[in-house]
Amino acid sequence: MDYNPSVIERKWQEFWDKNESFEPSEDYSKEKKYVLSMFPFPSGRLHMGHVRNYTIGDAFARFYRQRGKNVLHPIGWDSFGMPAENAAIKNGSHPKKWTYENIDYMRSELSRLGLSFSKKREFATSDELYTKFEQGFIIDMFDKGLLYRKKGLLNWCPHDQTVLANEQVVDGCCWRCDTPIVKKEMNQYYFKITQYADELLNDLKGLEGGWPKQVLTMQENWIGKSTGLEFDLHFDAASKAKLSNSFEHFDVFTTRPDTIYGVSYCALAPEHEIVSYMLENSLLSAESIQKIKEMKNSSSIERQKEKSGVSLELSVVHPLSKKSIPVWVANFVLMDYGSGAVMAVPAHDERDFDFAKKYDLPIKAVIKPKDAEPSEGKAFTEAGILFDSEAFDGVESKAAQAKIMDYFEQNNLGKKVINFRLKDWGVSRQRYWGAPLPFVHCDSCGIVMEKKENLPIALPEDVQITGEGNPLDHHPTWKHCLCPKCGKEAIRETDTMDTFVQSSWYFLRYTASPKIWNAKAFDAKELEYWMGVDHYIGGIEHAILHLLYARFFTKVMRDLGYISTSEPFNHLLTQGMVLKDGSKMSKSKGNTVDPDALVEKYGADTARLFILFAAPPTQELEWNDSAVEGAYRFLKRFYERSNRAYATQNIPLIAHESLNKEEKAARKKVYEALERSNDVFGERHTFNTLIAGVMEAMNALNEQENADVWTEGYWILSSILEPIVPHICWEVAQRLFECKNFTETAIREEVFSVDAVSMGVSINGKKRAEIEVSATASKEEILSLAKESVAKWLEGTSLLKEIVVPNKLVNLVVK
């Protein structure tokens, strides 16, 4: 009986497809499980990271189906985005054509892996139906004040010619193409995610135990809640006069009010309105103006590398000491956080210290370690004891922070405030291949929402993708329309939405049954049944962007009255990367493995077995060609040895006490594998240990000849392996058991009873022999057998002590 994976896998894939084996039931009285792997961008080919992601999710889905659960396990395509436009420029292909051809190919790749996705709920986010529903939500958010438009300095990617949200700037570069970003002033639409900052932060507590601690910490840090002091710094008379009395003061925020007596200079962002006023009115030297302009045009990453500044030749008055403080512009001060102005305390902040040393600014220490003097030559950033701080001398830092904030509030000098690092989410993108924002610009009415009955606002297909600017803005007719409010001629909004908008609610769309699919995005009853997602699987790289946005959208949908849940994902599994030769697989490094070629050579089951056996899912996986070969050989043996079992529709009933030693050992290993399966799918998710248990059971079965034991073994092992290697298990289980074994199997406790145990025998701690004793043997019987087994080493000695460790060893101490 030869193992031919290509024939077996094609047979069962056709069977599952014909019988719609993986469509969820609409019987909502059944217990549900919603298993979702993060959907892919249709780049054209699957990579091994995809294979790992979707194999993990598929294992969960198949396990729960065996347990009788109603399983929703969908797939779709995150299909808008710049790569499609880049491909259009490079290949002269339309983004839509490129995208949907890629989807067709990748869909066939997923099918060849035997992934048990629902096919009736598949969609691409670039489908006009999806856009229609999404644009409706955008209108609702605008109505509720959760979407607004304003002018601001935005992160601009010169390569992709589009705006990026703060979260999409990684180390000062575009998250997608690694091009350093620059700041550009333009109009932008924003989601008011800051309105949900507190809830997004507080609800992380409810995810503990279901989400990795690392992800929770990353989100907490990104939201960045901090309590501090906000106060105004007033210009002195000479500075007010220099500014033509246009500005009286500027406000600053600090989380370290205990250091306030150490302020020796202040710094403004190059984009601050006071700096802009000085540039516009030529209140600085030409050299200073040029330096500030260079700061404004440099990327965030460049501004953080080497600190530079320019004196504004202005001064403010210290609110407590009344001393004069110089005001500078510094490249490290950003408008993104706080007011774009900082009080600088170089003695107690490393960044401020470096800047002060470079420009020879005063450094005044006001906090020292307990029982020690402050050290010179570096900033002391820890908590300590205040000195040279007037009435607050001798007070510990933490207590001083509260006292100083109280003093400011009591004397109307400032106030205690809460700040967040999180900023509103800019969602405008100046590109073609995205969902159009459903707004119209009317000279009479201003910004007007499109009427819902006119949705979707679809993309025109007759565009020229050149890579320069926004093709929608250049289209001769598309943007010209009538105002939905007054009927006059108007201009349609040509910005499209950030693609993270589409992935922020796609998991809700999957809950829609086929009967309502075209009528509405989702149904309240179906949402109530399916949400939240029981298992969500994806890469750690999405810890902040996608997961934070998805949590935000879920809360917005709740407040719009669409859903009742507040969190989308009950359990999150972040799988590790697939490496080869110690590095992440990439075409540029030439270390990729083609999933199609792997399946062609070994079969999908081998690929799935290796990917789950090589490492626990949350850890990095190092590719190993010989281990792939090993996985194939194991499956070949598993298939060929199935002829030692006989056909039956019920698990064999075996009288355990009548079996010999090898038969009992085989049954024990089989049921240990079953126990491990329950544990792995329930808690630990270490599929590699489950597979190892199955391999041990197969080895034990091979040591005996009892057909009942073989049959029971295959009944259980083909069931617990089915989530991992489904094709071969369906083939074996159908031939032997008509797949009646694909259900929960009870543990037989008698297999774990032990008739005899092996015990090591040592003399003075050195092992000399091994004995086998009855599990019920007395201590005297064990000692008698032990002494007999090491008699030659006991000759001519005196026995000083006898130690028996039950079921493990006997140690005889002699002299």
Quick tags:
815 residues, 19% strand, 4-stranded parallel beta sheet, 7-stranded mixed beta sheet
User: Helical amount among residues, as a percent range?
Assistant: 25-40%
Number of helices: 26
- Radius of gyration, taken over Cα atoms and rounded to an integer in Å: 34 Å
CA(first)-CA(last) distance: 62 Å
Query: Strand portion, in percent?
Result: 15-25%
Main sheet: strands, sense, barrel: 7 strands, mixed
Shape: globular
Unreliable segments of 5+ consecutive residues: none
Number of strands: 32
Q: Mean pLDDT, as a whole number?
A: 93
Judged by helices, strands and strand pairing, the structural class is alpha+beta
Report what the structure shows.
The protein is α+β, with helices and mostly antiparallel strands. The chain contains 26 helices and 32 strands. The strands form 9 sheets. Strands 8, 9, 10, 11, 12, 13 and 16 form a 7-stranded mixed β-sheet that branches. Strand 1, helix 2 and strand 2 form a beta-alpha-beta unit. Helix 21 runs antiparallel to helix 22 (687-701). The chain starts with a helix and ends with a strand.
Compact summary:
The chain has 815 residues and is an alpha+beta fold. The protein is 36% helix and 19% strand. Strands 8, 9, 10, 11, 12, 13 and 16 form a seven-stranded mixed beta sheet that branches.
Spell out the blueprint of helices and strands.
Elements lengths: L4 H14 L13 E6 L10 H19 L3 E3 L9 H10 L3 H18 L15 H16 L3 E11 L4 E3 L4 E2 L2 E2 L7 E10 L5 H6 L10 H11 L1 E11 L1 H6 L6 E6 L10 E4 L4 H8 L5 H12 L2 H6 L3 E9 L6 E7 L10 E4 L5 H10 L7 E2 L16 E2 L10 H14 L3 E7 L4 E2 L1 E2 L9 E4 L3 E4 L21 H4 L5 E3 L6 E4 L3 E2 L8 H4 L14 H7 L4 E5 L5 H15 L12 E4 L2 E3 L2 E2 L10 H8 L1 H10 L7 E2 L2 H16 L20 H24 L2 H15 L5 H15 L4 H12 L18 E8 L2 E9 L4 H11 L1 H4 L4 E7 L3 E6 L1
Parallel strand pairs: 1-2, 1-24, 10-12, 24-25, 26-28, 29-32
Antiparallel strand pairs: 3-4, 3-7, 5-6, 7-17, 8-9, 8-11, 8-16, 10-13, 11-12, 14-15, 18-23, 19-20, 19-22, 21-22, 26-27, 29-30, 31-32
Helix pairs in contact: 1-24, 2-19, 3-4, 18-19, 19-20, 21-22, 21-23, 22-23, 23-24
